[in-house]
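Anyone up for a design puzzle?
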């Protein structure tokens, strides 16, 4: 019984360590396997500049592909007309009319604005997903899944901390 408990504890600790490292990995898609830039973006800053410009949680999500805890973002309950934009470079990403309650704990949308986001394959945590990032600064925003509502059938599951909200005028 004691060795079984030790085995289970060691396994859980290993999984937690891998998850922690995965949450804080550098933007692997920005640097290719050779260490050379794989993508270029209109808005660029040094790591120190990003760290100074963003809150710690924004920095973790946008620059190191972290994920905020579900149901913690005030943007989950934002229902006014307006636009959701990148917290890193202020590019408009999603119109409020495309927002829906996915019951996942993260702000979700069925479509981004035209030319606002880009995607890449994310193979972290042993699963293949489609990561969504800001096309202008490369900041990680979330993931897109094919279980959303019509008309697209997509669910852009975004980290609220990676975005800001600008209400519609008047």
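Challenge accepted. My sequence:
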């Amino acid at each position: 019984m004691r060795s079984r408990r030790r085995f289970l504890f060691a396994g859980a600790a290993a999984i937690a360590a891998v998850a922690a490292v995965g949450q804080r990995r550098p933007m692997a898609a920005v640097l290719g396997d050779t260490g050379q830039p794989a993508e270029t973006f209109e808005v660029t800053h040094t790591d120190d500049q990003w760290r100074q410009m963003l809150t710690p949680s924004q920095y973790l999500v946008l620059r190191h592909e972290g994920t905020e805890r579900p149901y913690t973002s005030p943007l989950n309950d934002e229902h006014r007309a307006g636009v959701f934009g990148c917290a890193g470079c202020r590019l408009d990403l999603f119109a409020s009319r495309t927002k829906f309650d996915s019951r996942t704990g993260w702000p979700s949308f069925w479509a981004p604005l035209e030319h606002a986001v880009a995607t890449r394959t994310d193979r972290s945590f042993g699963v293949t997903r489609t990561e969504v990032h800001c096309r202008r600064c490369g900041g990680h925003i979330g993931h897109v899944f094919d279980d959303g509502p019509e008309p697209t059938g997509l669910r852009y599951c975004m980290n609220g901390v990676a975005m800001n909200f600008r209400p519609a005028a008047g």
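A detail worth pointing out: Residues 5-36 have pLDDT under 50 and may be disordered.
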